[in-house]
Amino acid sequence: MTIELSMLVPHVPSICHEDQVPEFQKDMVSAMKDVSKEIYRLKPDAIVLVSCHWPSTFFHYVDCTPEHNGILTAIEAPDLIKDVPYHYPGDPDLADELVKAGQDAGLQVQGVNDPYYVWDYGSVVPLRYLVPQEDIPVINLSVTLAASLEETYKWGQVIAKVLRKSDKKIVFVSSGALSHNLVRGRHNKPTVAEHALDKQFVEFVMNKDYQAAYNMLPEYARMAKVESGGRHLAMLFSMVEEGSEPAYLADGQSSGSWNALITFGNKQVAHKEANVEREYVK
Ligand SMILES: [Fe+2]
């Protein structure tokens, strides 16, 4: 049917539990809760989510599991994300279609159907805010380290084609940061040079010059250490519909990374605190 809404979402570990969110990250949480209302208004049949914290080495994996049920303690931050339960339906039929389409396109794609596979926090954290009732089927995708940005974009195009041909309404979620040159101290922002690249990237996006934003990804990723080498952004660009409206809803730092919530829809998603004079244009 359509990809009703696409988005870049943050997943910084310190927002996992709403009562523990630092002040400078609260806006991201508030905006994700607003986006959740939009998701429930759209009533999608499935959410397709690519997570920077499912880094696969060689294959593009698709989580075809019919029921995602587990308890997550994050390997990277077991103090912040510990024993977090999740239980979402999957969509094995659509997931199998994605696998087949990828393989038919000559890509190294494999399906995963394993009730013991435990989700990563890049999947769990944003979904806690976006789909708090755990009642919309989810298909997760890995970011594949052996795949270039171009191959990831191509895989995204294959996915987008299947989603548009299906009779289902889809929301696509890209879970990851912009600049990501991590340092100790959660309050730290990216360096001025790294953040200059963030601002240029976001400016292209907000001007709907998605081609220019995509074209800067290789150098942006190298110089500002964009999370997953920018693969989640390359895949996002393959989903964004021609003419869709970007909305920059919130942002914030986390240990030297820059994180933004940006949606792409048929109309702008409203966020009560949204302000185009936000950080990225300062
Ligand atoms: Fe991350």
What descriptive keywords fit this protein?
Protocatechuate 4,5-dioxygenase, Chain B; binds fe (ii) ion; 6-stranded mixed sheet; alpha/beta; 282 residues; single chain
Describe this structure in words.
Helix content is 34%, strand content 26%. It has 282 residues and is an alpha/beta fold. The protein has a single domain (2-281), classed as LigB-like (Protocatechuate 4,5-dioxygenase, Chain B), CATH 3.40.830. Helix 2 crosses helix 4 (149-165) and helix 4 runs parallel beside helix 8. The structure holds fe (ii) ion. Fe (ii) ion binds next to strand 2. Keywords: Dioxygenase, Oxidoreductase. This is Extradiol ring-cleavage dioxygenase. GO terms for molecular function: ferrous iron binding; oxidoreductase activity, acting on single donors with incorporation of molecular oxygen, incorporation of two atoms of oxygen.
Walk me through the topology.
Elements: E1 2-9, H1 26-42, E2 46-56, E3 60-63, E4 67-72, E5 84-89, H2 92-104, E6 109-112, H3 121-130, E7 138-144, H4 149-165, E8 169-175, H5 192-206, H6 210-215, H7 217-224, H8 231-239, E9 245-254, E10 257-265
Parallel strand pairs: 1-8, 2-7, 2-8, 3-6
Antiparallel strand pairs: 1-10, 4-5, 9-10
Helix pairs in contact: 2-4, 4-8, 5-7
Fe (ii) ion (FE2) binds at residues 11, 52-53, 122, 177, 227.
